[in-house]
Structures are given as C-alpha cells and as structure tokens.
Amino acid sequence: MPKSSSEIIEYVRRQFEIKKMNTTKRTYVLSEQLSYPQLFGLLAKDQQEDALVQLSALRLLTQQLLLNEWQARCLSQHIRNPAGYLFGMIRKAQLGTFRASKFGEQQKG
C-alpha cells in the first residue's frame, strides 16, 4: 500500500487506468425488426439507450405493442413525462402485467 501522497496519487491513477481498460462501453442500436414511433426519436439519446436495453429483454411482439401503445397514449392523453411513462410501461411488461389496449391496436396499421 502506498504511503506518501505522490504514491497514493500514482496508485489511484493506475487503478483508474486498469478499470478504464477493463470497461467496455456498450452501445445499443435500434432494431431493424421494430417500427419505432416518431416520439421515440424525440427522447434524449441516453433515454433511448436505456429504453432499448430494457426493451431487449421482452419478446419482439411485446416490444412493438408497447411502443405503439406508448405513442398512442402520449398523443391522446396529457402525459407530462413521456420518458417516465415509457419506462413505467416497460416495467409492467417485465412484470407481466402490461396489456395492450385499443390505443396500441389502432397503431398496428
């Protein structure tokens, strides 16, 4: 263990570099199998990435129904926080309690 302040600084710097080398930045891209609603593109990039991570755990059909439902509800109701609403819907889907309603069905096309 380092004793002087310069040794401590050097030790911390090396530990940071080791951690940095061992860390992989994950990037998530939009799946070509899904039709993303226009509102999804208006979310901040970090919100889009977080949503993609969480959506990826769901079946493809569930992902599409959920995105359709989310956009339809945002457009037809006053949703103050669309990103938060999306994450709440994703959470319901993960728990198995999400049910598509007339909103999402109308968007299927």
Produce a short descriptive summary.
This protein has 109 residues and is mainly alpha-helical. It contains 6 helices and no strands.
Descriptive account of the structure:
- It contains six helices and no strands.
- It starts with a helix and ends with a helix.
- It has 109 residues and is mainly alpha-helical.
- It has helices at residues 5-21, 38-42, 45-55, 60-76, 82-95, 102-107.
List the helices and strands and how they pair.
Blueprint: H1 5-21, H2 38-42, H3 45-55, H4 60-76, H5 82-95, H6 102-107
Mean pLDDT: 82
Order of helices and strands: HHHHHH
Number of helices: 6
**Percent of residues in helices:** 55-70%
- β-strand number: 0
Distance between the termini: 65 Å
Task: Characterize the biggest β-sheet.
Answer: none
Question: Which keywords apply here?
Answer:
mainly alpha; 6 helices; 109 residues
